[in-house]
Design brief:
heterodimer; A: 210 residues; mainly alpha; 9 helices; B: 488 residues; alpha+beta; two-stranded antiparallel sheet
Chain lengths: 210, 488
């Protein structure tokens, strides 16, 4: 998170937003393709399920399409999109929490959608399950900070979205990262955090009876 | 030089290049002289890098072009349609489905149909599953209603109601199976489900058995006083008819899953008016007239264009939806097959505790996003791949339904579904009650309501999740929770 993962396209975004607001929907395509990945990462990180994340991101971009925002000072379009996605995601999760305890939710997320492609037999990796569990164990604000920063938002943007002073973000981010690490390591058979070697892609495995 | 060590927040911000220049310069000067802070900086960088790597590998971002098209399709305006055309033309974007999983059909209660499907033909079985689920899935308003085990006209004491549902699924249109080593007969699938129901002590007892034409495997479900038992048989050989599925090695083979009893297990089999009522709430559903099915008076309801597109869900989930309303959603462990249920039906998802199988995607109904299962299959005799013009539910864009409700009881007597693909291929299936009789106990097979564990089969505890009832889009509450029942 030492660099902005998706680049700073703010000025260009402003222009495209202006075009979109004027009714030229071709600008939407460019904005969508530019920001889909980071917004999806935030949504997926929050809900941990692909189909739901896709829904959230879809609804988020539809909001952009239907009502292009007027961005306030210091707020990038990406930050705005992330905020919308987070709000929608938290609403969805809050609804879920009404009917089940957090433990149940974690359990369900843990056992939920392990993709099973009968042709290629892809399993969601244990790694992914551990990351999902670790995120689920974080307080909401910590998880948000990690996800937003990972999506490429600046400290100022993250601060705006989580409603804290920008000068607090460094401390909060450090704590969030540490909490995430501890939660991750608490999971079974943890793989040590490797920082100097590239992460392996989620492994492919034969589906086996467990 | 500033001799005061940096706090964690400053070090983090320094590592992230988020400090203002002047502050960063001060921090640099300090760390040049402070090995402790340099070490802390290294630790911070290592930590955040590790977190970043994990988060990065955790998320596999879908193809944004396809996502863009889906989003615009949801918008559904002419302007969006033009943009779709442009995007699709420019980017050669698949608009219907991602390449992906072949579904394994599944009985909505976790059992027979799914395995039988694997042995028959995925597309055909999906249609059959649709019909079965349409006909048999309980409706939300019926929860708690119906016979509970005592006397009723439907299940009088000492009697057994024997019902046989049969579905016939066939592709019509431009299918040319003979060019691929099969015959037209390969695309005709007949599926039969026999059901025996009787009043029990606390609730009705039921045994159902699925049979597929020419198929090797039979699965069954039993509801007894202890709970619900669902047997998924092994697929021991290739089916003698039907497209050969590219699916094998299903890890649920030859298992009996036990779940606790819930009225929803049976109410789909019992007379219930709420299905009709709620179906008619659909914006595109109307009562079209009267008819008779096997001598029974029926009301006919048509529900057109239930689906408007299909999206493969590679996470092992699937569902059907409608742009204006939530129809249903289903997800099965190990299966990408979903069950489209007409509005008003509840959906029951099965999962096995103790086994990390896919669980319920409990938000699905709340999100109102059109998602439907992909089906693709390989015709018998072909080495693989998709056959041009063959029935392919992956490309179904619309489903038209006609449902015959018994006039007296509002039971579903017959369902006809027509699945339309943009290429003109139509996949048609009809399911109906072909037998419905009241028998004495002496007239039924011995021990039919008794658990008989198949040789070599293991028994696993499981639980059911019951989803919310259908909610019209206008009334949908994105925060409304799902209901969770019967968890062990």
């Amino acid at each position: 998170m030492s660099t902005r993962a998706y680049g700073d396209s703010g000025n260009n975004d402003d222009r495209l937003l202006h075009i979109l607001a004027a009714g030229d929907t071709s600008a939407f395509e460019r904005l969508f393709l530019r920001h889909y990945a980071p917004v999806y990462r935030v949504a997926y990180g929050l809900v941990g399920r692909r189909e739901i994340a896709e829904d959230l991101v879809q609804e988020t971009f539809l909001e952009l399409y239907r009502t292009p925002p007027t961005l306030s000072e210091g707020m990038s379009l990406l930050a705005w999109l992330c905020r919308v996605a987070l709000n929608k995601g938290h609403n969805a999760l809050r609804g879920e929490r009404r009917s089940q305890s957090r433990e149940e939710r974690v359990l369900l997320q843990t056992i939920s959608p392990a993709p099973f492609d009968p042709e290629v037999e892809i399993l969601r990796s244990e790694e992914q399950a551990r990351v999902r569990d670790a995120l689920a164990q974080l307080p909401e604000r910590q998880a948000n900070i990690l996800l937003l920063r990972h999506a490429g938002l600046s400290y100022a943007e993250v601060a705006s979205l989580v409603e804290v002073a920008p000068t607090s973000i460094g401390t909060l981010l450090a704590r969030a990262a540490q909490a995430f690490r501890e939660a991750y390591l608490r999971s079974e058979h943890p793989r040590p955090l490797q920082t100097h070697a590239p992460e392996p892609a989620p492994h492919m495995a034969e589906r086996t009876e467990r | 030089m500033n001799t005061q060590c940096l706090d964690d927040g400053l070090i983090q911000a320094y590592a992230d290049n988020e400090l203002p220049l002047e502050q960063a310069a001060t921090a640099t000067a300090h760390m040049d002289a402070c090995p402790k802070c340099r070490d802390r900086l290294a630790v911070a960088r290592e930590l955040i890098s590790g977190v970043d790597d994990l988060l990065h590998s955790y998320v596999e971002v879908p193809d944004p072009h396809a996502a863009l098209v889906r989003t615009l399709q949801t918008e559904g305006t002419p302007v969006a349609a033009r943009l779709i055309a442009r995007v699709t033309e420019a980017g050669n974007v698949a608009t219907s489905a991602r390449p992906g999983p072949v579904p394994v059909g599944r009985h909505r209660w976790g059992g027979p149909l799914r395995l039988a499907v694997a042995g028959v033909g995925l597309a055909a079985a999906l249609v059959a599953a649709f019909l079965f689920s349409t006909m048999l899935t309980p409706s939300p308003g019926s929860r708690g209603g119906g016979p509970s085990g005592g006397n009723s006209d439907f299940l009088p004491a000492g009697k057994v109601r024997h019902i046989v549902y049969q579905t016939r699924s066939q592709a019509v249109g431009t299918v040319t199976p003979t060019a691929h080593g099969g015959s037209e007969q390969d695309y005709l699938i007949t599926t039969t489900r026999e059901i025996w129901l009787t009043a029990g002590k606390d609730h009705p007892l039921m045994f159902s058995l699925d049979k597929y034409s020419g198929c090797c495997a039979e699965g069954w479900s039993l509801v007894d006083d202890e709970g619900v038992w669902t047997y998924i048989p092994p697929v021991t050989s290739a089916p003698s008819v039907g497209p050969t599925p590219a699916v094998r090695n299903i890890p649920w083979e030859n298992k009996v899953f036990k779940t606790s009893y819930d009225p929803l297990h049976l109410q789909g089999y019992l007379p219930d008016r709420s299905l009709l009522d709620e179906l008619l709430q659909q914006p595109n559903a109307t009562q079209t007239g009267n008819d008779s099915v096997n001598g029974r008076d029926a009301l006919v309801v048509e529900s057109l264009d239930n689906l408007y597109r299909l999206v493969d869900v590679t996470s092992g989930t699937g569902g059907w939806s409608d742009p204006a309303s939530i129809l249903a959603f289903s997800q099965w462990p190990g299966s990408n097959t979903g069950y489209p249920l007409v509005g008003g039906n509840k959906y029951q998802a099965y999962n096995s505790l103790g086994t990390p199988l896919p669980g319920p995607t409990m938000d699905r109904l709340k999100l109102r996003t059109p998602v439907v299962v992909v089906s693709s299959f390989v015709p018998r005799g072909a080495s693989g791949g998709q056959v041009t013009g063959a029935p392919d539910l992956a490309n179904v864009t619309h489903v038209d339904l006609h449902i015959w409700f018994e006039r007296d009881t509002y039971r579903v007597l017959q369902v006809e579904g027509v699945y339309r693909q943009p290429n003109g291929v139509t996949w048609q299936a009809t399911g109906s009650i072909v037998k419905d009789e009241l028998l004495g106990m002496s007239e039924i097979p011995d021990g039919i309501f008794t658990l008989r564990e198949p040789p070599g089969a293991s028994v696993e505890d499981a639980y059911y999740v019951f989803y919310q009832p259908f909610i019209p889009a206008s009334q949908a509450d994105d925060t409304q929770p799902m209901l969770l029942y019967g968890k062990r």
